[in-house]
Design brief:
With 314 residues, this protein is of the alpha+beta class. The protein has two domains: 129 residues, Gcn5-related N-acetyltransferase (GNAT) (Aminopeptidase, 3-Layer(aba) Sandwich), CATH 3.40.630; 165 residues, Gcn5-related N-acetyltransferase (GNAT) (Aminopeptidase, 3-Layer(aba) Sandwich). It contains ten helices and 13 strands. The model has no long low-confidence stretch (mean pLDDT 94).
Length: 314
C-alpha cells in the first residue's frame, strides 16, 4: 500500500539512507561537502520541526519532501526519492502532496530551487500544477590543471580600484546586486532579487549563515570607480580546496566592459595562490552572456537541473 504521511511522524533513522546517498553524490559529482546541511535537517526533524510529507510504501519510506514558509512565500526546499522511484506515479503523488501542503498555508508565491541529480521528470510534473520551469547550469573549472595561468593577478585600469572584500561592503553590494539583476530571469526564479533588502538577505545568508560554504575574503573583492562601488565577487570554500563563486554582480552602466572578467581573474589568482583545486558556480541557462564568459575561461558543464516558480498570475 502507498501512503503519504506527515514528515513529522518520520524518524531521522528512516531518512538516514537518503542523506548518506545525497552527501556521497554531492561529494563525488560536484566536489561539495554538504554533510552539515543534512546534519541540520536531522536535528530539525528530531525536534519535529521539519514541515513536509513522506512517501511510505508498505513499511518502507521511499521518498520525502520538505518545505519552508516565510511570510507569504513558500519554498519547496528539497525532494528526494529512493533509487528506482524517480518519475513514477508514486513520485508524482509525493510532489503533489507536498505542493498541496504548501498551498494550505496560503502563499502568494512558491519557489522550488533545490538541485536535483535525476530531475528530468520534474518539469512536466511541476508544470501540470501551474509552475514555470527554469534551467540552471552547474559549471566547474579545474584550477590545478592550469595553475600557472591564474597566478598573476589582473591589474585594473585607473581610476578603478580593487579592494579586498570586507563585510562593511555588504550594504553597497546589495544595491549593486539589485541593479545588476533588475529585469533578469533570476528575478523570476527568486523574488529576493527583486528588492535591495532581498539581495542583502541573499548576501547575509552566504556570508553569515554559510549556505554556500565558508567565505574566502582573500579571494573575494569589491571594485570602485572614482569612489563609487561598481561591482563585487564573493568566493567560498565548499569543501577542502574546492572553491565556489557564490555571487558576482556589476552595475549595469559598467557591464560589457570586462569588469566581470577582471573580478573572476582576480579571484582565480588568489585561489591559485592558495593551491585550490577547483572553482564551481551556478548560472541560469538563459544568461547567455555569462555562460559565454565562463566557457571562454575554461569552465565545464557538470550538471543541468530545473528550478520552478509559481504565482497566481504566472
Amino acid at each position: 500500500m502507498t501512503y503519504i504521511i506527515d514528515l513529522k511522524t518520520v524518524s531521522p533513522s528512516e531518512l538516514a539512507q537518503f542523506w548518506q546517498r545525497e552527501v556521497q553524490r554531492w561529494r563525488e559529482q560536484l566536489f561539495w561537502d554538504v554533510s552539515d546541511r543534512f546534519d541540520t535537517l536531522r536535528r530539525v526533524l528530531e525536534r519535529r520541526g521539519l514541515q513536509g510529507v513522506a512517501l511510505r510504501i508498505g513499511t518502507q519510506i521511499e521518498g520525502y519532501a520538505y518545505y519552508i514558509i516565510s511570510g507569504r512565500l513558500g519554498v519547496l526546499a528539497g525532494l528526494d526519492l529512493a533509487p528506482g522511484w524517480a518519475g513514477t506515479e508514486a513520485a508524482k503523488t509525493l510532489l503533489q502532496a507536498a505542493l498541496h501542503a504548501l498551498w494550505q498555508h496560503g502563499p502568494t508565491r512558491i519557489e522550488s530551487p533545490f538541485l536535483s541529480f535525476d530531475g528530468t521528470w520534474l518539469p512536466p510534473a511541476f508544470e501540470a500544477q501551474g509552475f514555470l520551469t527554469y534551467w540552471r547550469e552547474f559549471l566547474r573549472l579545474q584550477i590545478d590543471e592550469q595553475l600557472d595561468d591564474w597566478l598573476e593577478p589582473p591589474k585594473p585600469s585607473l581610476p578603478m580600484a580593487l579592494e579586498p572584500w570586507h563585510n562593511a561592503h555588504l550594504p553597497e553590494a546589495a544595491e549593486i546586486m539589485h541593479a545588476a539583476y533588475e529585469g533578469e530571469v533570476d528575478t523570476e526564479m527568486s523574488a529576493l532579487y527583486r528588492t535591495v533588502g532581498g539581495c542583502r538577505l541573499i548576501l547575509e545568508q552566504i556570508l553569515h549563515q554559510r549556505n554556500s560554504g565558508v567565505p574566502i575574503d582573500r579571494a573575494s573583492a569589491f571594485v570602485r570607480h572614482r569612489g563609487e562601488g561598481i561591482g563585487f565577487i564573493v568566493i567560498t570554500e565548499i569543501a577542502p580546496q574546492q572553491g565556489h563563486l557564490a555571487q558576482v554582480a556589476v552595475r549595469p552602466a559598467y557591464q560589457r566592459q570586462g569588469l566581470g572578467h577582471l573580478l573572476l581573474k582576480y579571484s582565480l589568482s588568489q585561489l591559485a595562490a592558495l593551491e585550490f583545486n577547483t572553482l564551481s558556480l551556478l548560472v541560469s541557462r538563459c544568461n547567455a552572456r555569462a555562460l559565454r564568459l565562463y566557457q571562454v575561461m575554461g569552465f565545464q558543464a557538470i550538471l543541468a537541473f530545473p528550478v520552478f516558480a509559481w504565482e497566481p498570475d504566472i
